[in-house]
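BUG-300 | component: ligand-complex export | severity: low

The export step for geranylgeranyl diphosphate jobs runs without errors, but we want the raw record kept on the ticket for reference. Input record follows.
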Amino acid sequence: MTPKLTSFSELKDYYTPIINSELKSNIIHVNDQRQVIIDAVLHSINAGGKRVRPLLSIATSLLLSIPVTSILPFACAIEMIHTYSLIHDDLPAMDDDDFRRGQPTCHVKFGEDIAILAGDLLHVLAFEILATPNAEFTAERQLSSIFHVSKAIGNDGMLGGQVLDLKHSDGVSNFDTLKSIHHKKTGALIELSVIGPALLVETAPILLKGLSDLGKHLGLLFQITDDILDETGTKEEIGKSPGKDKEQNKLTYTTLFGLEKARKMAEDEAKKATEILHIFNSEYTPLFSTLIEYLLKRSS
Ligand code: GRG
């Protein structure tokens, strides 16, 4: 029986091993030369990510009384897509990072060719998992979920945000551009992690709207904190090389507004997210408040 979880840290401690085992069960070893791609995928998947996105999906499931076991495949697919985006983001042709999640990046350890393919495999695996019939959900809702995932990671979502991020130095550095990059690059997948479970079951429109707004605020909160940590965190804390944003002339909350204002803006996003929680009449609402607190105060 699942213990009563009252805070995000309890949720994280309880569910992280369960997420890890769900991920492991979906990455199948092979007995020939293709095993190298499995090793590369496992290197990045097991490198020590915080599992924020699957934990968000689990938190939403608790909030809406959806059985967590039914949501694990969705949560696992989102973590695979996220890990894939990190592998590709670290490549020399993109952000060119040697260190991620406290480990050498995938291309440093396995070479660029294998790292590209490891990302591709995670992408494909994620959709295979999302398309696998799940007895808890109708085929129509699963199809709709696949549609929403595609939208969240395509040109109007994560991929488009990455393009805008890479190319911004050719363009204008203002708040609208910054928000657009952050909403797409990071926010879209975070919002999807929050709203995704609700799309797989029948959910009242008012709650769907609430989850979408909540997800948007959490996405911005997450990325502002990421920007702050890039400036203030150590390599050990953030598991990657700090100071890269300034070095690469990135448009971020701290490069545009400075540290103090960025911190205030993160607090504003946390406050707006907290204000939405009252619409959920659930014993897990306080847990969600601690989740928001964690995203605001995290140091890794
Ligand atoms: C998805 C189709 C498709 C393409 C990918 C490369 C790319 C296009 C997008 C990159 C997007 C990217 C790297 C966004 C940054 C998001 C972010 C803040 C990552 C850090 O997340 P954490 O702190 O990392 O949750 P851990 O390692 O803890 O999981």
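Assignee comment: Attached the raw record above. The beta strands are 99-100, 103-104.
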